[in-house]
Structures are given as structure tokens and as C-alpha cells.
Amino acid sequence: TKTYDYLIVGAGLFGSVFAHEAKQRGKKCLIIDKRSHAGGNVYCENVEGINVHKYGAHIFHTNDKHIWEYVNSFVEFNRYTNSPVAVYKDELYNLPFNMNTFYQLWKVRTPEEAKAKIQSQIDQLNIKEPANLEEQALSLVGTDIYEKLIKGYTEKQWGRPATELPAFIIKRLPVRFTYDNNYFNDKYQGIPIGGYNKLTEALTEGVEIKLNVDFFKNREEWESQADTVVFTGNIDQYYNYQFGQLQYRSLNFEHQTLETDNYQGNAVVNYNEREVPYTRVIEHKHFEFGTQPKTVITKEYPQEWTAEKEPYYPINDTRNNDIYKNYKDLADQESKVIFGGRLAEYKYYDMHQIIGSALKKVKDVFQD
Ligand code: FAD
């Protein structure tokens, strides 16, 4: 018999939730991760007493009461509400697009005036069938919002002019005719008190974890140790790229410690001009109402992805989705390998969705 029931490749949220649930059911698990720490992309590094979101700002939000209660059973959450502000040249705007934004743009004060302003700009453009992302956005929100708050940010994110991006990337652009700067519409939102590591540590309590271990460096050896593999890494790599490589967008994070207790007064400030090379500046302490004497900020630069860089956002165009489908067909035939998580499913998932999908997988596997 094998040493473990499950070998879990990847100590991210998917692997951690699966490990917790399997352990609850009396199963023996080993988690391996190629990084020097557990937690996957929600991992935070402590700098000057501040939890620094090393792989990008993470804000937990969900409409699902069950998932909210599930995460709160491991760690308490604070009342952080995401209310980003956007800088465009020397102007500052509230996000998401709401009555505060419209007042800042046009000095309009009533929903009726704001709606009329947006509609008149849309009518003037007279776009019948949007041929690209620019026309799509313009036909949804008009010229001012598009030029100041969408165009530059989107072009930096994708590394291409908006006129060369497909219209389908933007399906809707939520506009809100109330004075409400809460970015998310979900019922529940917050940050774990003490940081995300508290959540992933509580999930994996009592589970063996080996760090700095790449599954592919010694694949047969790892596979031989467990009855079943739960794989949360890149699915194309699992199958030796036999149908080709799946593409991603990547990010470069530039972290800085500053000798001030408050740099920008908000956790998230977007930079919307094309000319500013980063898209956002994150000031981490504000996620937890920190009162430390110093502060840590992170500039986020979107970049092209190559094999040495972190794969952040899947590019779900036709080419990549077709390639993924080939891998998925192979995965569906496996009886001793479970695939899950954002890399194995080649899909952007928020944290609550990853937890939901891990719990669903657990239900299927253990039939309870
Ligand atoms: P991961 O966390 O990536 O875990 C996979 C793990 O597998 C990694 O630790 C990796 O090192 C390991 N691994 C891979 N290959 C191997 C191998 N060969 N051998 C060993 N180990 C391996 N969600 C929200 O809800 N709110 C947000 O505000 C939010 N912001 C985000 C911002 C950014 C920039 C990004 C990219 C994502 C954001 N998310 C957010 C989504 C969130 O990060 C994911 O939902 C979640 O982290 C996915 O968990 P996972 O376990 O699938 O993947």
C-alpha cells in the first residue's frame, strides 16, 4: 500500500481546501509546492509588520453565505470594503462608476442629469455594431468615461491598443446611479484578520507540506507515494505540452518600503493614463487598517508572459480554449488524478469560486 491517500500538487487555496476536507474524512495527504512557501497566490509576506500581498492585491468577496461561513470558521474577517480611486492626469475619480464619479466628471448631481449626459455622448457616437473593444466601451458609457477611465488602463492591461482588442472582452460596464463607492456588489466582503496566511495555515493544519519541491523534477517518485494525485499546476505541463502551450498575461510587482505612515490614503489607486507604465499602486496596510510607522507600496506593471514568468491571467481566446479542450479530454479519462484550481482548469477564478469548486470536487470524490 502507498504512504498517502492523496498527493496534492500545489499549496494554493484549491489544494488547501481539498487537503482539509480529505483529512476530515480520515485520509492521509501530502502537499508539495515548488515555491518556498504555502498559500499559492494569496500568500502574504510580512514586511515592517505589514502583510504584503506578494502576488497581487486580494480582496475576499462572495454572495454565497455557505462559503462566507466556511472561511469565517477558519479565521475572522475584517470590514474592509474595496473602494478604489482612479488617477487620470491631475484628476481623481471614485470607482466603480457611480454618482460620485459623475459629479467629479461633469458636476452633475442627480441620477437624471448623469443618465442624460451619458446617453447624449452615446447617441452622438452612433455606433451600430462595435467592431472592437474601444467601440464596445464607447457604445456602453460614452466618450468621457471611456477616454479617462477605461482606455489607458485597458491598453496597459492587455499590451495592445483598444482598437485591436476584441469587443467581447467587455460585455457590460456597470454604472451605478447612487453615491456608492463599494466596488463589489456581493453581500460579504473583507480581509482575514491577521492576513491570508492565517486562512491557509488553518486549512492545512495537521497536513504534511513539503516546500521547494517541483512535481515535474521527480514525477514518478512522487506519483508512487500516493493512491491519487490532486494536481493544481499547469495542465499543459502535466501532459508535456503535447497540444501546445497555453498562453497567459503576466504582471511585474515592484515593492517599496517608504518612510511614511500613509502614502496614498487608500489601499488601491488606479492609474488610468497610458503614459504611466503601471496600472495600480497598492498600499497594503490599508487592507487591515494598519497603524505601523512605515508603509509598503506595490506598483503593478502588466507584462507579456514567457515561460519563466508567473502565469497570472489566462488568455481565453479561441486558440487557447481549443488547446485546453484537448488537455481536458485527456484529464477526463484519468481515474487516479484529480485536476482543479486556476492553472489546471485554465480559468480565472476568484477565491470564493476556487473554494466553491474545491468543495464541489470534494463532494464528488467522497460522495457525501
Ligand atoms: P494558486 O494559488 O496559483 O496555487 C497553485 C500552487 O501550485 C502554487 O502555489 C504553485 O506554486 C503550485 N504549483 C504549480 N505547479 C507546481 C509544480 N509543478 N510542483 C509543485 N507545485 C506547483 N481573487 C479574489 O477573490 N479577490 C481578489 O481580489 C483577487 N485578486 C487577484 C489578483 C491577481 C493579480 C490574481 C492573479 C488573482 C487574483 N485573485 C483574486 C484570484 C486568486 O488568486 C485565485 O482564485 C486563487 O489564488 C487560486 O488558487 P489556486 O489554488 O487555484 O492556485
Task: Kindly describe this structure.
It is a single chain. This protein is 32% helix and 20% strand. The protein is an alpha/beta fold and 368 residues long. It folds into two domains: 4-78 and 187-247 and 315-366, 3-Layer(aba) Sandwich (Rossmann fold), CATH 3.40.50; 85-169, no CATH class. The strands form four sheets. Strands 7-6-12-13-14-11-15 form a seven-stranded mixed β-sheet. Strands 9-2-1-10-16 form a five-stranded parallel β-sheet, covered by helices on one side. Strands 3-4 form a two-stranded antiparallel ribbon. α1 (13-24) runs parallel beside α11 (351-366) and α4 runs antiparallel to α5 (133-141). The chain is globular and about 70 Å long. It starts with a strand and ends with a helix. The relative contact order is 0.20. The model has no long low-confidence stretch (mean pLDDT 97). Bound molecules: flavin-adenine dinucleotide. Residues 9-15, 32-35, 40-42, 56-60, 214-216, 232-233, 251, 312, 341-343, 349-352, 354 line the site of flavin-adenine dinucleotide. This is UDP-galactopyranose mutase. It is an enzyme of class 5 (isomerase). Residues 148-348 form the UDP-galactopyranose mutase C-terminal domain. Keywords: FAD, Flavoprotein, Isomerase. Its cofactor is FAD.
